[in-house]
């Protein structure tokens, strides 16, 4: 399910209006509408506001299962920190990057933009 559809679906399941979301999050109703129609990509902070307004964990916007997803550890290639600037160029880390690039080719351009947007948000949060 697309994120915009999921936001609308959860709001409707909770029997909330866009006006209710405006009151709970401080986001304008028109902005909520743009999010629900896929015209705007929400920031991670905005999704956190929605999660609080809906009283749901953040992962429900990205995960279809009933139970929370199992936390997976990153591959050893990603976890390895040997102090070199060559991560991803050879060995296990290169295989990981190649596999990731193959998977990223399968997603839509909008989903790719959303992933990049979220990654930038996480980087900004980590720096502050």
Describe the fold and architecture.
The protein has 128 residues and is an all-alpha fold. It has 2 domains: 3-61, 434 Repressor (Amino-terminal Domain) (Orthogonal Bundle); 88-127. It is 59% helix and 0% strand. It has 7 helices and no strands. It has helices at 3-13, 18-25, 29-36, 44-54, 76-79, 91-104, 109-127. Helix 2 (18-25) crosses helix 3 (29-36). The model has no long low-confidence stretch (mean pLDDT 82).
For the structure shown, list the relevant keywords.
434 Repressor (Amino-terminal Domain), mainly alpha, elongated, 128 residues
Quick structural overview:
The protein is an all-alpha fold and 128 residues long. The protein is built from 7 helices and no strands.
| CATH fold-level name of the largest domain | 434 Repressor (Amino-terminal Domain)
The percentage of residues in β strands lies in: under 5%
Uncertain residue segments: none
Please report the first level of CATH classification, the CATH class of the largest domain.
Answer: Mainly Alpha
Please state the structural category: mainly alpha
What share of the residues lie within helices? 55-70%
CATH superfamily caption of the largest domain:
lambda repressor-like DNA-binding domains
Distance between the termini: 32 Å
What is the chain-wise order of helices and strands? HHHHHHH
pLDDT averaged residue by residue: 82
């Amino acid at each position: 399910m697309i994120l915009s559809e999921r936001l609308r679906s959860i709001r409707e399941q909770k029997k909330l209006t866009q006006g209710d979301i405006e009151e709970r999050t401080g986001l304008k109703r028109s902005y909520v509408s743009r999010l629900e129609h896929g015209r705007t990509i929400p920031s991670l902070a905005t999704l956190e506001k929605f999660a609080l307004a809906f009283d749901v964990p953040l992962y429900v916007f990205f995960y279809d299962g009933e139970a929370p997803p199992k936390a997976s550890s990153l591959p050893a290639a990603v976890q390895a920190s040997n102090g070199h600037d060559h991560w991803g160029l050879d060995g296990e880390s290169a295989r990981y990057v190649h596999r990731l690039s193959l998977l990223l080719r399968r997603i839509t351009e909008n989903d790719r933009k959303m992933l990049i947007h979220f990654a930038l948000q996480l980087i900004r949060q980590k720096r502050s």
